[in-house]
Amino acid sequence: MRQDLLSPERLEQGYVIVLPGIEGHSFWNKSIVNGLVDAGLPYGIEIHDWTFTRHIPLINLRFGRHHRSQSDIIAGKIVRYREQHPDAPLYLIGHSGGGAMTLYSLAKLPEGVNVTGGLLLGPAISPVYDLQPALQHTTRGLWNFPSVFDVLFLALGTTIFGTIDGHHWAAAGCLGFRGTECPTGEACLDPHYREIPFRFEMSRHWNFGGHFGYVNRRFVAHWLAPILRGGDVPRHALGRIARRVVEDLGTRV
Fold first, then answer.
1. What is the spatial distance between Cα 229 and Cα 208, in angstroms, rounded to a whole number?
2. Helix 97-107 crosses helix 64-84 at what angle (to 10 degrees)?
3. Hey, what domains does the chain have and what are their CATH numbers?
4. How far, in Å, CA of 24 to CA of 35, rounded?
5. pTM to 2 decimals?
6. Chain-centre distance of CA 220, in angstroms?
């Protein structure tokens, strides 16, 4: 991990904690970091490898006691950063199992300690998992990036081996979280929750809907970095139907 990405100057600007999938520190999470750097994001950036072992990744999927201890450690990092930088942007980005660890860690924060937001990239957690304990520790909310094409890992894989919270069915990184569907394509679960399902225009930035499309550095630079800067996903991410609804409403106002 590049130490210059954790310089005091960068940490003054903001802080991003990247939580890997069950494979641990790898090319895939380095690609997330590279995408943020490509986009010119000025924040401090750190990969926190929460996994227990890199030799048998499936152990990392269902080792609940280790999940709890690591989420305590991550929450502690957040608390310490907030003590020194109470108003700086602070985001967690979790891929696959790291998406679940993002939710676990946020829920462990003490009252009054918040991050700016969390980005869930194909989270390997069940669609019925309660997001409220995590949401209440964010100021901007959560963004979930699911894909129905992520069948091998987040449908077949989680049905056989289970989600990180112990359910044997397709994960929220494939189907989204239950109760989030709206006619406009935006999330209804909570005003601070946004669901951005895979759309074919994402393939222009090398995300083809598979499990590792979310972490491609071009996708990260174009789709994720704007959120961390205080904006949102590109306008075309609303999708054609939702965009027509928004534009139609605009003409009536």
1. 25
2. 60
3. 3-252 (3.40.50.1820)
4. 18
5. 0.88
6. 11
